[in-house]
Amino acid sequence: MRRRIRAVKSTQQITKAMKMVAASKLRRAQERVIATRPFAREARKVLKSVAARVDPSAHDLIAPRATGAKGATLLIVITSDRGLCGSFNTNVIKAVSAYLGEHRGESVTLGLVGRKGRDFLGKRGLPVRFEYVNLPKVIHMAEAEAVAKPAVEDYIAGKVDRVLLVYNEFKSVIQQKLVIEQLLPLHDLDTDGGADQAPAGEYIYEPSPERILELLLQQLIVAQVLRALVESNAAFYAAQMTAMDSATRNSADMIESLTLTMNKIRQAAITREIIEVVSGAQAL
């Protein structure tokens, strides 16, 4: 019993330290989430303004594609490289499994970001377009570009008809929201909004609006992927901190229960020895 108590105490020290580390990293990750959201929102707003001045079919990434309901799909699945984070990765894997079950017979390709998703989904026998593991602690544009590049290439080449992102969105320390959102084609630019959404004034573009639109589309797609990676990173630290806090409390309850059991065993042994001594004295 003493060995078990020492083992639980050692585990408790580890979980407590991991909780503190996750809490410190969560603060910085949360700051990056807050800084990334306005950029993605404003980039989409500028893109809508430019898209309203060009033909909707001017670029492959926003042109309506005449495909059936069973077009090829690229699923970019974002998980973590490490565990000990509760149901963080399990929820993403369950969502992907449910999507695959609902779309049986369709052509689905996976883009796996994170070791946990790669280890599980990579063994399902589905085609994998790319794998990206061992992401840095601080996500930069380079990582987002590496994830977005193969997706854009496959979509422009016609290999896939749409690209979906599956990840955990950071809501709060105790809440993460599972998100499945469409990355390509960009479907909510409202380029045909009519007179009510016409631009208030005309601008002179240098170079042409089509060229600016092409550059903005690339930046917006990378920004959307960057936001998803940053959101998932912050959600991971929040889930890990919550899981380690729960493990620390559970270990304290286990130590208390084991200590009580050990004291009962020791008391029973002491009582038995006293009874044996008294019985021997009476026999003499």
Per-chain topology:
Blueprint: H1 2-51, E1 73-78, H2 88-102, E2 108-113, H3 115-121, E3 128-132, H4 141-156, E4 162-172, E5 175-184, H5 209-283
Parallel strand pairs: 1-2, 1-4, 2-3
Antiparallel strand pairs: 4-5
Gross morphology: elongated
Number of helices: 5
- Could you please say which CATH topology of the largest domain applies here? Pyruvate Kinase, Chain: A, domain 1
User: How far is it from the N-terminal to the C-terminal residue, by CA?
Assistant: 36 Å
User: Which sequence of strands runs across the widest sheet?
Assistant: 3-2-1-4-5
- Structural class estimated from helices and strands: alpha/beta
CATH architecture assignment name of the largest domain = 3-Layer(aba) Sandwich
Radius of gyration using CA atoms only: 28 Å
* H/E series: HEHEHEHEEH
CATH superfamily grouping of the largest domain:
ATP synthase, F1 complex, gamma subunit
Mean of pLDDT? 83
User: Mind telling me the CATH class of the largest domain?
Assistant: Alpha Beta
Range of helix content: 55-70%
Count of distinct strands? 5
Tag the structure with descriptive keywords:
single chain; 284 residues; alpha/beta; Pyruvate Kinase, Chain: A, domain 1; 5-stranded mixed β-sheet; 13% strand
